Amino acid sequence: MDYKIRNLLKAARDREKSLLRLLRALVELESPTAENAAEKAALDRCLDFAAEAAARFGATIRRHRCRVLEARFSAGPAHRGEKPILLLGHLDTVWPLGTLAQLPFKIEKGRAWGPGVLDMKAGVAMALTALDLLRAEGLPHRPVILLLTGDEETGSSASRELLEKTALRCEAVYVLEPAQGSDGAYKTARKGIGNYRVHVTGVPAHSGVNFEQGHSAIAELARQVAVIEALTDLKRGVTVNVGTIHGGTRSNVIPAEAWAEVDVRVPRASDFARIDRRMRSLRAHDKACVLKIEGALNRPPMERTRAGVALYRQAAALAGELGIDLAEASTGGGSDGNFTSALGVPTLDGMGAVGEGAHARNESVLLKHLAPRTALLAAMLMPKER
């Protein structure tokens, strides 16, 4: 094992308690995606804390109006002029304010538990710890930009422009989302995500007095649901899910309005173009009903590329020196890495914690992986020649 790599692992193990203290502080600062004043204040408190921690570890801090924290870590003289590595993460979670009272942070059974601990506050704590140990050990590293956003869980509409502009100035992007599965695979591909709203306007009527004069928006929507669900093609990895439906007012009224929300997942951009054409070509079976289709691709696919695979192979080689058998995986979930990869910037995802239960009550991080994965992240920030 390379001397510097061995030192990284020891340094990471020495910092495990401080990493867990940092993780606990982040989890206990509840930070749902900000959609009202209370949530905005909570998210700002978490971003403020992360900014203070990054500044202690030597970063230059900038806060953006779109609730993004930018922390820049300069390199040593030998690497100052190089293009930076972008570490990409988010501090917003899916958990509403007050969740911590029912699901408090705890360390139990070899795991750290709590809302947002896996997705993805552990990844943030690992990144800050990795940068701190490189500085403390006097080890060279590439220039690093850490971007922590506050709206990833709801689509990154406010932060997307900034993260894309930043990524285009960077050599590569490392996404601090959780690793895949219990073995902690890194991710080289993610599906793209599209969202649609299918709205039907019918003709209302009394269901008992003049039933034949009505044209049911719900009945029309039901026909459309069958057509939409049939767009799923599991062999191609394409899924189309009608997730919610709404409509009608009372049981004795032929419904005048009905609508459905549709989730589309595709592994390739060409698949989305085909599904988009099919969605927009939907036509009402009942000519008295009016059909309106709204929606678009929210996140482009993170397709498996040579550049992404090269980053994975670099990580796998370093992981081997640390005693980690690092696998490669793809997933149906999206991340902000979808955006950077689609721009052609080499992107490697899943470089955060190993655990299970993201978005669920059993959300937890496996403690045994924290130090080795933090050391691996630090190694990936060092110059290739080390």
Question: Would you mind describing this structure in some detail?
Answer:
There is one protein chain. With 386 residues, the chain is an alpha+beta fold. It has 2 domains: 268 residues, Aminopeptidase (3-Layer(aba) Sandwich); 108 residues, 2-Layer Sandwich (Alpha-Beta Plaits). The protein is built from 11 helices and 18 strands. Strands 1-2-6-3-7-16 form a 6-stranded mixed β-sheet, sandwiched between helices. Strand 17 and strand 18 form a beta hairpin. Helix 1 packs across helix 11. The mean pLDDT is 95.
- Please identify the structural class as seen in this structure: alpha+beta
CATH superfamily assignment of the largest domain?
Answer: Zn peptidases
Shape verdict: elongated
**How many domains make up the 3D coordinates?**
2
**Element order: H for helix, E for strand:** HHHEEEHEEHEHEEEEHEEEHEHEHEEEH
**Which CATH top level class of the largest domain fits?**
Alpha Beta
Q: Distance between termini?
A: 13 Å
Largest sheet: 6 strands, mixed
| Rg calculated over all Cα atoms | 24 Å
* Share of β-strand residues: 15-25%
**CATH topology annotation of the largest domain:** Aminopeptidase
State the helix count.
Answer: 11
- Poorly predicted ranges (pLDDT <50, ≥5 residues)? none
**Number of β-strand runs:** 18
In spatial order, strands of the major sheet run 1-2-6-3-7-16
Q: What's the average pLDDT?
A: 95
Helix content: 25-40%
